[in-house]
Design goal:
This protein is 43% helix and 15% strand. It is globular and about 60 Å long. Helix 8 crosses helix 9. Strand 3, helix 4 and strand 4 form a beta-alpha-beta unit. The chain is α/β, with parallel strands linked by helices. The strands form two sheets. The chain has a six-stranded mixed sheet with strand order 1-2-10-7-8-9, sandwiched between helices. Strands 5-4-3-6 form a four-stranded parallel sheet. The chain has 15 helices and ten strands. The structure holds ligand AN7. Ligand AN7 binds next to helix 4, helix 9 and helix 13.
Length: 357
């Protein structure tokens, strides 16, 4: 059967009917790749590591899973316009699905704080892009207020349809592995995604009659870690602009996911994020954006801490790291993280001198 996106594939688990006009770009069905090179790097024989490559979605991030449901439902319910505040990926996805559906799309972004790739996506898809002099949290408050007062549908993850769509990623992981993973490492920003995965795993557990659920291991950037600190942060900072969020909307649900699963929500530093970012690209050939690398950064931190040291030598555990967004979203960061190309004269001798064959 030809793949037709997450709504068709997981229809019975989603709030859609035969009357719902499905706005899709065949999102989802992303690769779950075994990361043998990273496994070697971690130095633990007992970990089977997989990477869920969500950057391979149509607009380059996991947001498309939720956006297909949110925009389809907005059209079904007769909306004329949708709106979101965004650190970039939500706005890119909202703009793309809106242009496909004919809805007007308005996005509020924190001025100067979103990666260029994401900004270019929102703009080329004809969204009304407004840069707010403030951070994401301020922009989200404004978007909420506007959507309460005017006939505009909010498509941030406060919109329950977003969470419903995003939970399909956990179904895919179970379907690909043929079992539930033991641990899932992932970034946490506004905390919608950890909420969605946990909801998905719990729903699938009932269907699959499994007694195993993964521990949810969420990671915030250390300068933007309100959940870890237990209080909102007024001026969050991190190079991982996607998760530069000081007051996550799904805070309570994220804490529930952590506690019900026996997992953790912890921090990784920008330095740890960049190390993991380069390691994923350099050892597995997958280019992710910095925020996404916080999942692997978290895994490296926990391996180093000895978190997995109690695993008996014959046992193996299955770990999935969620790589939420594509590296091309933020090419500036890649360029800043590596050495620039050497410039040489246009002759064989000069080129050979540099490439050292
Ligand atoms: C690549 O686009 O919040 O914890 O406005 O773009 O569900 O917020 C993006 C978040 C992780 C965090 N990785 O997910 C937005 C936005 C990437 C992201 C997250 C985001 P949530």
């Amino acid at each position: 059967m030809i793949y037709k996106g997450v709504i068709e594939r997981y229809r019975e688990f989603l709030p859609v009917s035969s009357k719902t006009p499905v706005i899709t770009m065949y999102e989802g069905n992303t690769p779950l790749l075994r990361a043998v090179n990273l496994e070697r790097r971690l130095g633990l024989q007992s970990i089977e590591l997989y990477l869920k490559c969500e950057g391979f979605n149509p607009t380059g991030s996991f947001k498309d899973r939720g956006m297909t449901v949110a925009v389809s439902k907005a059209v079904e319910e007769g909306a004329k316009a949708v709106m979101c505040a965004s650190t970039g990926n939500t706005s890119a996805s909202a703009a793309a699905y809106s242009s496909r559906s004919g809805l007007k799309c308005i996005v509020l972004i924190p001025e100067g704080a979103i990666a260029l790739g994401k900004l270019s996506q929102a703009m080329i898809h004809n969204a009304e892009v407004v840069a707010v002099r403030g951070n994401f949290d301020t922009a989200l408050n404004l978007a909420r207020e506007i959507c309460e007062k005017y006939p505009v549908t909010l498509v941030n993850s406060i919109n329950p349809y977003r969470i419903e769509g995003q939970k399909t990623a956990s179904f895919e992981i179970v379907d690909s592995l043929g079992r539930f993973p033991d641990y899932q490492f992932m970034p946490v920003g506004n905390a919608g995604n950890i909420t969605a995965y946990w909801k998905g795993y719990k729903e699938y557990q009932k269907v699959k009659h499994s007694d195993c659920l993964p521990k949810m291991m969420g990671f915030q950037a250390s300068g933007s870690a309100p959940i870890v600190l237990g209080k909102p942060i007024k001026n969050p900072e991190t190079i991982a602009t996607a998760i530069r969020i000081g007051n996550p909307a799904s805070w309570k649900k994220a804490v529930e996911a952590r506690d019900e699963s026996g997992g953790v929500i912890d921090t990784v530093t920008d330095k740890e994020i960049i190390t993991a970012y380069k390691l994923i690209a350099g050892t597995e050939g997958i280019f992710v954006e910095p925020a996404s690398a916080s999942s692997v950064a978290g895994l490296l931190k926990y391996v180093k801490k000895g978190y997995f040291s109690e695993i008996k030598s014959k046992e193996t555990v299955t770990v999935v790291c969620i790589l939420t967004g594509h590296g091309l979203k933020d090419p500036d960061r890649a360029i800043k993280s590596v050495r620039m190309p050497k410039v040489v004269s246009a002759n064989l001798k000069s080129v050979l001198k540099v490439i050292r064959l």
